[in-house]
């Protein structure tokens, strides 16, 4: 995943509470088991007047011209609750979202954000509303800065808000390594030693199908 160190971006306010993963990407929009091709279904029930024709809903915040290029979401309590589908985060990543600022998150969604390079920033509801007000007049000019090295979110007025992330979660974002990547980095010597020994004990596990047919008729 892409490391997250410092990001300056356009913010969009979607200040609803309990936005669940089915709202983020409805199940009917999930037509792949991979991470690609999901952005078209992001917030589909809200982004489109007619889901079938994909006619945009002009009042939806992400469809508004001043929100073009949005990379930061400001939203309400319990964002990402409901189903544990990781597709919700994949759709946000593909759209271009790098950070989500909310008073709280669904627990599994929060972890999925970390593992896919989105910074989930928890701030008091009053602070989220203040940030929304500060960017609303001109989002293209009034940008937000999310700085994980300095552990702060800066509003367009220069006011700093502390970012409180666990050390492990922060390190995953800074390095761009998910738990598998971290394991491979930290324990590569032990893994290679195990594989070398395993090749001796179970050599048939490490041959191609064609070689297997020849070697083990």
Please tell me the overall pLDDT.
Answer: 92
What sort of overall outline do the alpha carbons produce when their principal axes are compared? Answer: globular
- Count the helices. How many? 9
* CATH homologous group name of the largest domain: Aconitase, domain 4
Strand and helix order? EHHEEEHEHEHEEEHHHH
Question: Could you characterize what this model shows?
Answer:
- This protein starts with 5 loop residues before the first strand and ends with a helix.
- It has two domains: 6-176, Aconitase, domain 4 (Alpha-Beta Barrel), CATH 3.20.19.10; 187-215, no CATH class.
- The protein has nine helices and nine strands.
- It is of the alpha/beta class and 217 residues long.
- The mean pLDDT is 92.
- It has helices at residues 21-24, 44-47, 87-95, 107-115, 125-136, 167-175, 179-186, 188-201, 209-215; strands at 6-14, 48-50, 55-56, 70-75, 99-102, 119-122, 144-147, 152-154, 160-162.
- It has a seven-stranded mixed sheet.
Summarize this structure briefly:
This protein is α/β, with parallel strands linked by helices. Helices cover 35% and strands 18% of the residues.
Set down the secondary structure blueprint.
Blueprint: E1 6-14, H1 21-24, H2 44-47, E2 48-50, E3 55-56, E4 70-75, H3 87-95, E5 99-102, H4 107-115, E6 119-122, H5 125-136, E7 144-147, E8 152-154, E9 160-162, H6 167-175, H7 179-186, H8 188-201, H9 209-215
Parallel strand pairs: 1-4, 4-5, 5-6
Antiparallel strand pairs: 1-7, 2-3, 7-8, 8-9
Descriptive terms for the model:
18% strand; seven-stranded mixed sheet; 9 helices; 2 domains
């Amino acid at each position: 995943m892409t490391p997250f160190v410092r990001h300056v971006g356009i913010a969009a306010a979607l200040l609803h509470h309990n936005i669940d993963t089915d709202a983020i990407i409805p199940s009917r929009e999930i037509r792949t088991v991979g991470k690609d091709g999901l952005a078209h279904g992001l917030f589909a029930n809200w982004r489109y007047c007619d889901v079938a024709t994909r006619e945009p809903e002009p009042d939806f915040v992400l469809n508004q011209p001043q929100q073009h290029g949005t990379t930061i979401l400001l939203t309400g309590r319990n964002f990402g609750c409901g189903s544990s589908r990781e597709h919700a985060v994949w759709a946000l990543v593909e759209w271009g979202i790098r950070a989500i600022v909310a008073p709280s998150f669904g627990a599994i969604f929060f972890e999925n954000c970390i593992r896919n390079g989105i910074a989930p920033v928890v701030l008091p509801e009053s602070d989220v509303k203040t940030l929304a007000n500060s960017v609303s007049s001109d989002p293209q000019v009034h940008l937000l800065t999310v700085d994980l090295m300095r552990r702060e979110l800066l509003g367009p007025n220069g006011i700093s808000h502390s970012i409180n992330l666990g050390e492990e979660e922060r390190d995953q974002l800074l390095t761009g390594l998910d738990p598998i990547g971290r394991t491979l980095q930290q324990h590569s010597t032990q893994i290679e030693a195990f594989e070398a020994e395993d090749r001796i004990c179970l050599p048939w596990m490490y041959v191609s199908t064609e070689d297997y047919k020849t070697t083990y008729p």
